[in-house]
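TICKET #2291
ISSUE: user wants both folds in one file
ATTACHMENT 1:
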Amino acid sequence: MLRSSYMFLVFAISLLFSEFAYEMAWSGRFHAKNNHDLIQHLRSSRIIKSDRVYEAMSSVDRGNYTCSGYAYIDSPQDIGYGATISAPHMHAYALEILEDKLCDGARALDVGSGSGYLTACMAMMLGTNGLAIVGDGRLGYPEKAPYDAIHVGAAAKEMPQALIDQLAPGGRLVLPVGPRNSDQVLVQVDKTKDGKIKKKSLTGVVFVPLTSKDKQHPS
């Protein structure tokens, strides 16, 4: 959850600094012994639906992105500094939403990459490496725009216009919108080939707020 600013260039970018801690109304809490068993469970539960998301999450071991000792439980885990790595089912859900945009030659921006886990999965689907950039995630990263896919891992009080502007025609943005820890909704924003914007509310979620670096880490 980027409460602040950090980006990772997933052949484009990812604002890294906290990761998202959101969950849907899902009765998961599956306790797996390893990454393989966890991903198999998500697939058998139909959280993972596509082969590409399955392959990406199978290739990126969640155990390398948290030292909590509970990497393979389907729940959020603390990664320090008031940030978390989201529950695996939420990672899978986000990747499924963006799956058809994360293809070879595409460009993606991950705002608030936190542990870097989702960024790594996105990079696997794009067939490229990521680049970490420090900055204000609310402003995106215009230097590498436009993006075919943008993921935001912290809740914005209102829709960030800068990120919509940085979407490529045919691109998709997914982000949580709403006040801190209440009444938040995961929203999908699509930009049509002729530049029109279409928004769709997906599900209720809980994220840390998208805010400035000074508010996240006051001196």
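ATTACHMENT 2:
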Amino acid sequence: MHAIVELAEFIARHPENVLPRDTRDTISLLVLDLIGATAAGLNSPLAQTAREGGLAVFGEGSVDVWLTSQKSSIIGAAMANGAAASALDIDDGHRGAAGHAGAGVIPAALAVAQAVGASDARIADAIALGYEVALRVASARPVPTIITYASGRWVGYGVAAAASRLLGLNGAQTAHALAIAGAESPGMFASGTSKYQGSTVKEGIPAAIVAGLAAVYRARAGGTGPLDLLDDAQLYDRSMLTGDLGDAWALQQCYLKPYACCRYMHAAVDAILELRKPGRDIRSLRIETFPQALRLANERAPRFLEGGQYSFYFSCALAALRGREALQPVLPESLHDAQVLDLAARIELEVSEDFAGSFPAGTPARVIFDQGEGRQEMVVWHPLGDVANPMSREQVAQKFRNIARHTLPPSWQDEILAATDGLETAGFAPLFQALIQPEVQSSKGRTVECHI
């Protein structure tokens, strides 16, 4: 049996409403975290251009573009929401996949669910299955074969899995949906082929959402794809693709990101925040890390937020001088902070043999910091938010408030927090309502148009 067919049968036949309680709790946490990331990235150039372009290309419709008064088609809204969620690099990720599933799977699943009036149980199942397929495909790739870690290469599989479940496709249709999505998702440029790693192309997640959703509707209409796409043993480890399906859920192994920068540098940021003494003169700052970290663009004076997200020098200087909140999220004016740029120009960044084999399972760092009282040293193996060093729900809620503070007033934050806290008892309807701008809610009498 083809690997895609086996995955498709699992998606189509998995019993409804049997997810374990801890899995459902994780879904609630991931949804909250992603809505926060969306609020933080909502007004970024990446998100703004995606919304404008999405409406122009995919048209208006009945599905909400989150936190705005706009509506678009299923694909247009999902693409716009995924773009905002991934814009500031503060969305969830997974060690084995070395990328981000949630910014593709959750916007796609909720867009389809809103359009078709899916039940709460089916929405939760779709999110779990979407993460499962996306993360298995990404994690099954042998590291030497990976030419880019851009999530757009594989997120489309998860989008197709979630949407197939919501639309009730059978196993054969789901298999072709996965195959079409895999064949037509963005190839992305190989690591090192462009210095513009921080452009608004970035992860390729919006394009993967478009490809994944289109694949499902094409498969439902009878379209077919290359079912052997995942069968090459040199490119995909079959045991990781399909072994022990249903025994555990991959989304429970996701990490959350407290800072709006590439996960590669979070261990260094954690150490800096622990060691920093505000107001002290920073004489030197040295960071030792794993080899793949030096493949980032690492601009010392990035011109755009995306460039800052992929720069050890900039993000670590910002953490050292301005503290945690300066990375929750990073504001455009930080790009012009003269003191930050001066320190970024002086930071030393080197590979340590101690961390040579860490990636992708780990992203450790050693920080050597002199703030006028001699050198201090700290090693962080598991940055905050890792499975081995998880964030509590209270910490995720505080992160949500911090990164949403420039976009959402406190009352709106409270409504979204209450809706995500209540997913287990009240379902998704309050969340759909909370994601509409308050003035739109009032004009509608606070009634959701779709029936969830």
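RESOLUTION: both attachments delivered.
EXTRA DETAIL ON ATTACHMENT 2: The first helix runs from residue 3 to 13.
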